[in-house]
Recover the amino acids of this structure.
């Protein structure tokens, strides 16, 4: 079904690109027709001007002749009243024709100016039409799109806002053309040099680009992070930059220090959005009021790990690293698929996946259950619509592995302290208990293939011997 959907989306993207090209060509053809009409009009005006010039020349000759006659008559003392009236009439005709000639010359100038503008527009449209157009493939993510015309990108973010990303130094006439064509909510010049980030998961995406593309400027562009000093950072360079002040902490995500944020003069702020009094709606509205350019990245709402990881393509546009991001994601997808194939035919151990907080048990959701399946396991409580401690204890001997879905514990005894009756679970007795590492929530979305790989290590150490865990810890 995913392959069919991906194919359908690719076909739609190609059709949209073709429609865009057709519309652009139509605009180019229309402009050319207007220019042709202006040229014809200019020719007719020029003919009228030539005819007036001929008439003026004849009248001027006639006036000179009449003046000579009047002069001759005056010399003899004879009054040639008739000749005088004729001379006055010719003078009036000359004046009238001169006015008409002036009006025609003004019209010629106007036509020339219009023609010059039309030629410039035709050249501009021709240049735009000649740019290759298309879309960056997006296979799994549902909340963003990327299309392009040459080096100009049009993105939609997680709120459906239209973002125009243009290269630095794009000619102003082309920028005006694309502004008029797409009417974006925000325009961002790339590669960005000053970035503020709201979420640590966004930082992880940028960090992966920096590490795998080997471009220090990508990480150096991050000048501010919300909650920067509140996190324990599992990206050493980021931790060091926050420590030495290269990256500023601009306050909490729910109410950042706007004075400090605006002082950083960011090219763009990456934010996530959710409504409500404890959400970020007020932050987004305030950034809009301040005129600070922002884009909305809600990768956490994507329904699959690959969909969340695919947002690296979205980030990459702003760093002029789109091709690199596509290559990175293709490698992620290939590794993900190879792990799923490896685990598909193995025996499936039964997996309990939950945490307990405040006396309430929080079981695995649908996405986690799918992850267990892909890693070659069986969710132990698949037959239950509601999972609580009673269900867990009922199946104490029917479980092979326990995943404690939070961090902050370092031994099995830490879990037993939370709920003593968990000591009766088979994996607790056998020592097959794992928990999230402190890096889980920070790096998991950017490295989904690592998530699946470590889960395969946990469930099938006989098929894929464990390496160095990053996202999980084995509790002893």
């Amino acid at each position: 079904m995913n392959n069919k959907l991906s194919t359908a989306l690719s076909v739609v993207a190609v059709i949209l690109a073709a429609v865009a090209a057709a519309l652009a060509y139509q605009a180019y053809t229309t402009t050319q027709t207007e220019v042709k009409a202006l040229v014809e009009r200019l020719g007719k005006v020029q003919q009228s001007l030539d005819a007036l010039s001929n008439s003026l020349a004849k009248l001027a000759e006639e006036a000179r002749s009449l003046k000579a006659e009047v002069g001759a008559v005056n010399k003899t003392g004879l009054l040639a009243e008739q000749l005088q009236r004729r001379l006055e009439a010719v003078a009036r005709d000359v004046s009238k024709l001169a006015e008409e000639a002036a009006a025609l010359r003004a019209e010629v100038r106007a036509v020339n100016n219009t023609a010059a503008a039309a030629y410039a527009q035709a050249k501009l449209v021709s240049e735009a039409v000649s740019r290759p157009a298309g879309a960056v493939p997006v296979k799994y993510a549902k909340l963003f799109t990327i299309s392009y015309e040459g080096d100009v990108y049009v993105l939609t973010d997680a709120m459906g806002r239209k973002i125009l990303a243009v290269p630095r130094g794009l000619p102003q006439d082309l920028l005006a053309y694309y502004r008029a064509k797409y009417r974006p909510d925000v325009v961002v010049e790339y590669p960005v040099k000053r970035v503020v980030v709201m979420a640590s998961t966004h930082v992880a995406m940028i960090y992966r680009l920096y590490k795998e593309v080997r471009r220090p400027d990508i990480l150096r562009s991050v000048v501010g992070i919300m909650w920067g000093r509140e996190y324990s950072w599992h990206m050493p360079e980021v931790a060091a930059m926050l420590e030495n002040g290269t990256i500023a902490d601009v306050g909490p995500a729910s109410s950042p220090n706007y004075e400090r944020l605006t002082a950083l003069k960011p090219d763009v702020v990456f934010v996530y959005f959710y409504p409500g009094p404890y959400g970020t709606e007020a932050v987004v509205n305030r950034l809009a009021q301040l005129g600070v350019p922002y884009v909305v990245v809600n990768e956490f709402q994507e329904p699959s790990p690959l969909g969340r990881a695919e947002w690296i393509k979205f980030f990459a546009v702003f760093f002029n690293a789109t091709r690199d991001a596509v290559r990175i994601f293709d490698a992620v997808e290939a590794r993900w698929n190879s792990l799923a194939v490896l685990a598909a035919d193995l025996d499936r151990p039964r997996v309990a996946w939950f945490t307990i907080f405040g006396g309430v048990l929080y079981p695995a959701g649908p996405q986690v259950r799918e992850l267990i399946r892909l890693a070659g396991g069986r969710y132990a409580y698949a037959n239950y619509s509601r999972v609580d401690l009673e269900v867990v204890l009922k199946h104490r001997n029917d479980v092979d592995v326990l995943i404690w879905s939070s961090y902050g514990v370092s031994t099995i005894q830490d879990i037993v302290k939370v709920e003593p009756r968990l000591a009766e679970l088979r994996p607790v007795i056998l020592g097959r208990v794992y928990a999230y590492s402190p890096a889980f929530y920070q790096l998991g979305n950017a490295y989904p293939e690592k998530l699946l790989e470590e889960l395969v290590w946990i469930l099938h150490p006989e098929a894929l011997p464990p390496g160095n865990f990053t996202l999980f810890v084995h509790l002893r």
User: Anything to note?
Assistant: The radius of gyration is 37 Å.
